[in-house]
Amino acid sequence: MTTDSAMSFLIPLPVVLALLGAGVCLALGQNARVQRVISFTTLSIIVAVAGVLLWAADRHGPQVVYVGGWPARMGIVLVADRLSALLLLVSAIVTLCVLAYSVGQGIIEFGRDTPLSVFYPTYLVLSAGVSNAFLSGDLFNLYVGFEVLLAASYVLITLGGTGPRVRAGTTYVVVSVLSSMVFLIAIAGVYAATGTVNMADLAVKLQEVPEGVRVVLQLMLLTAFSIKAAVFPLSAWLPDSYPTAPAPVTAVFAGLLTKVGVYAIMRVQTLLFPDSPLSDLLLWAALLTMFIGILGAVAQSDIKRMLSFTLVSHIGYMVFGVAVASDLGLAGAIFYIVHHITIQTTLFLVTGLIEIRGGSTSLEHLGGLAKAAPVLALMFFLPAMNLSGIPPFSGFLGKVALVQAGVDRAGWLTYLVVGVSIVTSLLTLYAIAKTWNRAFWRPRTEEPDELTESVPSSGTKSGAPWGDTVAVTSVRSLPRAMVVPTLTLVSLGTALTFVAGPLFGITERAAEELRDRTPYIETVLDDGSSPGAQTVDDPGSDR
Amino acid sequence: MTVNLVLIIVIGVTFACGVTLLLERSLTRIVVGTLLLGNAVNLIFIVASGAPGRAPIVDESDPSPMSDPLPQAMVLTAIVITLGVAAFLLAMAYRSWQLQGHDEVQDDVEDRLIMRLADLDEASQSYEDTRGGEPDEEGTDTEEVQR
Fold first, then answer.
1. What is the pLDDT of residues B86-98, one digit of tens each?
2. Rounded to whole angstroms, how far apart are CA atoms A338 and A316?
C-alpha cells in the first residue's frame, strides 16, 4: 500500500469496517444486544473517520489509497477528495441517526431481546456500498459499490416479505437491475475505447477519443445514473416502491440512494466529460424532473407518497447545478445535496412517527395532530419549511446559490429553468401546507370519511412499520427512543443554517477542485507509482 | 481493434431475447430475461478485451501476445453479481407465488386507484345534480367518488 500521507490508511475503513461489522452481526444473529452495540460502534467509527478524511482532504488535497498496492492504472484506487469526503460524512451521520431510530422502533415492535437477524447486517452492507460508491476512483469499482448498496436495498425494501412489499420490491429490483446493465455496457464501451476504467486516467484519455464515441459513452453513463438518481423520464419507479418499506428504510433510501446517483452524475460530468455538449439536455432533464415531480406531490393524499414525489422533484435542483457547471452552480448543487440528504431523511422519519401517533399516513385519516402532539408538529414543521425553502433555512440558501448560478450563466433555457425552480419551490410549499393543514391543523374527524370505504386504500394502510399483519396501527404515544434520533436530525437540519458559511466554503472549494480536475488526476496518477505503471504495458494501449 | 462478428451476432440475439422476456408479466420470465441480458453484457466485455492471445500469466509467456486479463476479471465479478441478483429475484417470485398463487408483476396500488377514480368520474357524468359535491384538494368530487 503506497502511503503518500498519514491519512491514506483511513480511506478504506468506511467500507471495510462496515462489511466486517455486517459479518460479525450476521454471525451473532441470536443476540440482539450485541448486534446493536456492533452496529452503533461501527457507524460511529465511520462518522469519525469521515470527519478526519474531510479535514485531510480540505487541508492537504485529495487522499488516495492504492488497494492491494497495485500501481494507479492497474489496480483499484480509492480517492477521498472534498466532495467524496463531505458526502461520506453527511451520509455517515444520517445513517447513524436512522440506525438509532430503527433500534428504537425494533425494540418497541418486538421487545428488547428479539434479534432482527437480517436488518442490522444488511443495513451495514448498505452503508458499505454507499461509502464505496463515494470513495471509488474507478468506474468498475463504482459499479461494484452500486451493486453492494442495491443488493442490500433489495433485502431491506422487501423486509418481512409481505404482499405489498414484494409487489413494490419487484418493480424496484427489476428497474435497478436494468440500470446496472446499462452501466455495465457503458463500462465495457469505455474500456474498449480507452483501455482503462480508472477515472483519473480516463479524464486524460477520453480527450483523445472521437467526439461521437465520447457522447455515446456519456449518454449511456448518464442514463444509468439517472435511473438510480430518479431523474424525470426515468423516475417513475421511485414513488411506486419507496413508500411501502418500513419508515427507517424509506428514510435512509430517500436520503442516500438517489444522492449516490447524483454524486455519480456530478463526478462523471466534471471529471470525465468537462465542457460537454450535453448540458442543455441536462437542463431539460432538471426542468422536467422538478416540475413533473412536484405536480405528482401536489396530487397525493398520502404523506409518504407526497414526500417520495418531492424527493424526485428536488433531485432536479441538483441536476440543474451540475448542468450549469460553474463554480457557483456546482457549489450550490453540493450544498443542496447535503441539505437534501438531511431534510428528506428527517421528513420520512417524522412520517414514521406520524404513523405511530395518528395510526396512518393517509391525509384522509389524520387530523388534529398539532394539538395532540405539539412536539411532533414542530418536528414536521421545521424540516418541511426547510424543504420548501423558506428564507432562514438551508433549503433557501441552496436554492439562492443555484438561482444565482443560473442567472450568471444566462441564456433563455437557463432562465426558464430558474423560473421553474422558483415555481417548484412554491408548489412544494403548497404540497407541504396541504399536508400541514389536513394532518395537523384541522380537528380530528371521529369517523374516517366514507370515501376511504369505497376505494381500496390498501396501499396506504400497508405501511405498517415492520410487521406482517397490522392494517391500521392503533394510536399510541410517541416512544422516546424514536423521538430522540428524529429530534437530532431535525436540529442538524436546522443547524445547517448556522454553519452555512463554513459549509458553503467547503462546497465552493470542492466545486473549484472538481472544475480544476488537475489535483485529482495528478494525485491519483503521479504518486511515486508511475515507474511501476510503466514497467508493464498498459492494456489496450497497443490496440 | 478487430471484432469477432459471430460474437456480435450472439450478443444481439441474446439481447433481443432478454428484452422480450423482460417485457413479460411473469416474474420468472423476467428473471430469465435478466440472466440473458447479463450474459449478453458479459460477452460485450469479451469483445471489449480485444483479440484473444496467450494466457496472461506474468513470467510464463511473452507480454505482447497476452490476452487482456482485466475484462475477464470484470466479467467474473459481473457474473457473481448477476448470480446473486437472480437468486434474490427467484426467491421473490416464489414468495409472490406463495402469497398470491401466481408470480405476475402487479400494477401499483395507487395507479389502480387513480384508474378506478377516473372510471367512476366518467360514469357519473350523466348525473347533473352531483355537481354540487364539494371537491377536495385532489380535485376529485367526493360525492362522485362515493357513487
1. 999 998 888 888 8
2. 15
pLDDT at A104: 80
| E strand or H helix that includes residue B65 | none
Of B78, B96, B142, the CB nearest to A166: B96
Q: Are B34 and B89 in contact (CB under 8 A)?
A: yes
The residue of chain B with its CA nearest to that of A194 is B48
Nearest C-alpha in A relative to B95? A161
Strand blocks (E) in A181-255: none
pLDDT confidence of residue A35: 83
Say if CB A323 and CB A73 are below 8 A apart.
no
Give the integer Cα–Cα distance in Å for A472 and B72.
52
Cell of A539: 492494456
d(CA A199, CA A184): 15
A537 within a domain of the structure (yes/no): no
Count: domains in chain A: 1
Domains in chain B: ranges and CATH: 5-100 (1.10.287), 109-146 (no CATH)
Domain extent at residue A428: 6-449+461-528
CA distance A427 to A418: 14
- The confidence band for A454, taking pLDDT boundaries of 50, 70 and 90, is very low
pLDDT-derived band at A114 (thresholds 50, 70, 90) equals: low
For residue A439, the 8-state DSSP code is I
Chain A residues with CB-CB distance to B1 below 8 A = 192, 543
The residues, any chain, with a CB within 8 Å of residue A64's CB and separated by 6 or more, are A4, A8, A11, A77, A78, A79, A80, A137, A523, A524, A527
Angle between helices A412-435 and A303-324 (to 10 degrees): 160
Nearest to B78 among A178, A184, A454 (CB): A184
Residue A1 lies in a domain: no
Q: How distant is the Cα of A98 from the closest Cα of chain B, in angstroms?
A: 25
Express each pLDDT in B125-145 by its tens digit.
Answer: 434 444 444 444 444 444 444
Q: Which of A354-358, A520-524, B136-140 comes out lowest in average pLDDT? A: B136-140
